[in-house]
């Protein structure tokens, strides 16, 4: 019996009795929850003070809605005798943030009440949940205000516990996901001012967002601030910064970061993304030869180039008119089974069109379609524009018409391309009809199209026909702005001039165009990196020794020469905000200068520069072209000096005009030196530059050099155009070298270049020269016969 009784006691399932106070709190919490779950809530009367345990039971009850919990909390705090604990505040705040939808309006007053009652009333996780709720709902101002409340009410010690780097990181990342870049930047800088280093992920994503938004000043400022604070850059950070500075043309900074990155190993090691960014920086700076050498080193190191590196190189080679190199890289890309996409094909297609290799461009397009790569609107736009620019206007119109009939691959840019070419050919009426058709198809008529038509109207002698555009362009807000600008310009041009500048040069200058080398290189180069490169310490195990050598000379890039842009300046800056005024100035400069009205163009330039508008390279080049053509070389030098004073970067067109001016002065040798400087700065020779220099050398009687330059042009992959052949025929004919002139005529016909009126004039001169030589030979023969007969 004793053993049986012991077994019953050991397996007993009885539980200890619940204390009366805890049971009372549970019953009270149940009653309160029932009362406040009603609508409207019925506030009960309590015999004594509300216990904290009962209040927590109510606030933590999952079945009770957040609004009911808030009503209970307000009743409890207003009835007297109840002082909420930090746990009660946290429970209510979390309930409000987790409600669907979250109850946001009472969040901030409740947070302020909690922080005022006790510095430790809100724990960091609860505080972060409040901020996340505000940000998810788009209430960014409330989130920032909550941060300010924590600084103001919690005290320095408690605020340091709430406003941790982790808190800031989560908020910064959330703001970036909501595209709130300015607020994210403000918060991160706030953390840096507090002498706390932010999380690497937040910094990297913020830097990447600034680069993508092209906010260069903010990017550089944050980069400098992080560097000064001792922030440890990881591989991702270095890659972002190298890519950003490289894409903005700051090659020296990009290479210095690469050098710094390699010195931090093995914690930070360059990867394929790093090399992609460096190659991209070299291509943007025009250092195509260096980029190709680095590309070769990367391949030999065992790294396999990806699609991004191939596209970067193809783009850089095409931009620098080294299309044969671009084709070679493209073939290597296919050989290594890296599939080219539409963007790569479009880049190479555009490059082939630029160097007048129309047949190869068409073959590439057919290959693109046969490989299953879907052509885009951009692909067809490149084709149509290339056909027009390569003298195949009929084919361009046929392709455009067929695409319209199919109802695909035609956008506003397609119409703009065709309108521009129609206006250049003087077919303004057809261009206006196309503008009307553009709107009928629901496409926007942009400023490029409108200004092209304006130039066409003025070119055809219809000075007062700008208002005719109202009949064709009705649904755009752009045209009224254009007409309003034109009216303001007319009134400014008719207004009396300031006579204080009478008898003063518009572009004062000291020196002449012969001093061009000092303009290109304002400060002489003091770089001794080449001489000391062998003495510098080298990494014998480096995968890219040539790139390391470039990185050692990072300080020499861009420090002692005039800035050079990659492309010819555009009349209209489509992607540049706030450029409407200068775009219109460029348009009317083109109109005035085409009519030979140089004085009007100069007055327009002076008026708008006085009003504070910053001229661009296209603006200066327009005036410079007219001054050079008219032989006003002293004024041309003044324009270049003004351009340098205002730190306006020169482009390839600027150098072309400089070479033209030097050619007129008979300084062909100096022109060649200018081109050497252009090449050293990453510039390139396009077909216009080749034609200009061939003409300058030919006029100076340096025919052998002009012939070598022609061979260099063909060898670089650029097909000569009718201007090239006309120039060569002319300079050889005038030098009395009829056979060579006739040889270039045959080459011209073999290349499929259609002669123009200049060719006819040149051939007339050539025929006269041939007759003169025949007469000369006949007279010599007759003189010999007379001598023999005697």
UniProtKB/TrEMBL annotation:
PPR repeats: 234-268, 271-305, 306-340, 341-375, 376-410, 411-445, 446-480, 616-650, 651-685, 686-720, 721-755
Name this protein carries in UniProt: Pentatricopeptide repeat-containing protein
Keywords: Coiled coil, Repeat
Database matches in PANTHER family: OS03G0856100 PROTEIN, PENTACOTRIPEPTIDE-REPEAT REGION OF PRORP DOMAIN-CONTAINING PROTEIN
Keyword Transmembrane helix attached: no
InterPro entries: PPR_rpt (IPR002885), TPR-like_helical_dom_sf (IPR011990)
Location of region: Disordered: 1-20
UniProt source species: Musa acuminata subsp. malaccensis (Wild banana)
Statement: the UniProt record of this protein carries the keyword Repeat: yes
Coiled-coil stretches: 763-790
Assigned protein family: Belongs to the PPR family. P subfamily.
């Amino acid at each position: 019996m004793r053993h049986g009784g012991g077994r019953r006691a050991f397996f007993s399932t009885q539980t200890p009795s619940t204390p009366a106070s805890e049971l009372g709190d549970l019953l009270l919490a149940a009653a309160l929850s029932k009362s406040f779950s009603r609508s409207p809530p019925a506030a009960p009367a309590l015999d004594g003070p509300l216990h904290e345990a009962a209040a927590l039971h109510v606030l933590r009850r999952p079945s009770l809605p957040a609004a009911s919990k808030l009503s209970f909390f307000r009743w409890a705090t207003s009835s007297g005798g109840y002082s909420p604990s930090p746990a009660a505040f946290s429970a209510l705040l979390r309930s409000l943030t987790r409600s669907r939808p979250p109850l946001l309006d009472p969040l901030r007053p409740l947070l302020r009440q909690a922080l005022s009652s006790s510095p430790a009333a809100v724990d960091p996780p609860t505080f972060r949940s409040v901020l996340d709720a505000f940000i998810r709902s788009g209430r960014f101002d409330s989130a920032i205000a909550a941060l300010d409340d924590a600084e103001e009410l919690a005290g320095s010690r408690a605020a340091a516990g709430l406003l941790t780097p982790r808190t800031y990181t989560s908020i910064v990342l959330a703001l970036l996901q909501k595209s709130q870049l300015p607020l994210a930047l403000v918060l991160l800088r706030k953390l840096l001012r507090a002498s706390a280093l932010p999380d690497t992920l937040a910094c990297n994503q913020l830097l990447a967002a600034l680069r993508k938004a092209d906010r260069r000043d903010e990017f550089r400022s944050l980069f400098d601030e992080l560097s000064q604070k001792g922030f440890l850059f990881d591989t991702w950070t270095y890659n972002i910064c190298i890519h950003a500075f490289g894409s903005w043309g700051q090659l020296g900074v990009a290479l210095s970061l690469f050098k710094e990155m390699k010195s931090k190993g093995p914690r930070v090691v360059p990867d394929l993304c790093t090399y992609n960014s460096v190659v991209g920086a070299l291509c943007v700076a025009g250092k195509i030869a260096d980029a190709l050498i680095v590309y070769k080193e990367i391949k030999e190191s065992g790294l396999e180039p990806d699609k991004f590196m191939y596209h970067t190189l193809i783009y850089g080679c095409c931009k620098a008119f080294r299309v044969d190199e671009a084709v070679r890289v493209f073939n290597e890309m296919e050989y290594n089974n890296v599939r080219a996409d539409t963007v790569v094909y479009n880049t190479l297609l555009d490059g082939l069109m630029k160097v007048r290799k129309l047949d190869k461009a068409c073959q590439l397009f057919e290959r693109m379609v046969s490989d299953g790569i879907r052509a885009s609107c951009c692909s067809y736009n490149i084709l149509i524009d290339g056909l027009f620019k390569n003298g195949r206007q009929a084919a361009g119109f046929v392709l455009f018409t067929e695409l319209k009939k199919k109802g695909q691959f035609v956008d506003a840019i397609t119409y703009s391309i065709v309108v521009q070419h129609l206006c250049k050919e003087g077919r303004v009426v057809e261009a206006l009809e196309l503008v009307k058709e553009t709107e009928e198809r629901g496409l926007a008529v942009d400023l490029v199209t409108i200004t092209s038509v304006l130039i066409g109207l003025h070119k055809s002698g219809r000075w007062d026909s700008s208002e005719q555009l109202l009949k064709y362009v009705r649904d755009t807000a752009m045209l009224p702005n254009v007409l309003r600008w034109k009216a303001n310009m007319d009134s400014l041009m008719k207004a009396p001039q300031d006579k204080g500048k009478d008898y003063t040069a518009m572009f004062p200058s000291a020196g002449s165009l012969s001093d061009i080398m000092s303009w290109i290189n304002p400060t002489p180069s003091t770089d001794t990196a080449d001489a000391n490169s062998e003495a510098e310490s080298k990494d014998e195990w480096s995968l890219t020794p040539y790139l390391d050598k470039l990185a050692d000379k990072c300080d020499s890039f861009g420090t002692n020469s005039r800035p050079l842009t990659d492309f010819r300046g555009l009349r209209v800056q489509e992607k540049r905000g706030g450029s409407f005024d200068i775009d219109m100035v460029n348009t009317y400069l083109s109109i005035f200068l085409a009519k030979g009205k140089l004085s009007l163009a100069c007055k327009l330039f002076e008026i708008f520069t006085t009003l504070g508008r910053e001229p661009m390279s296209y603006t200066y080049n327009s005036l410079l072209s007219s001054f050079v053509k008219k032989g006003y070389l002293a004024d041309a030098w003044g324009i270049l000096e003004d351009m340098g004073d205002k730190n306006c970067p020169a482009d390839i067109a600027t150098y072309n005009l400089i070479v033209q001016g030097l050619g007129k002065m008979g300084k062909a040798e100096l022109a060649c030196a200018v081109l050497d400087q252009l090449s050293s700065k990453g510039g390139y020779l396009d077909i216009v530059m080749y034609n200009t220099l061939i003409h300058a050398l030919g006029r100076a009687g340096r025919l052998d050099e002009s012939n070598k330059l022609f061979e260099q042009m063909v060898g670089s992959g650029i097909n000569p155009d009718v201007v090239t052949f006309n120039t060569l025929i002319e300079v050889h004919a005038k030098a009395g070298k009829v056979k060579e002139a006739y040889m270039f005529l045959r080459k011209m016909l073999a290349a499929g270049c259609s002669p123009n009126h200049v060719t006819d004039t040149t051939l007339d001169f050539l025929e006269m020269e041939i007759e003169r030589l025949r007469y000369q030979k006949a007279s010599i023969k007759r003189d010999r016969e007379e001598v023999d007969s005697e």
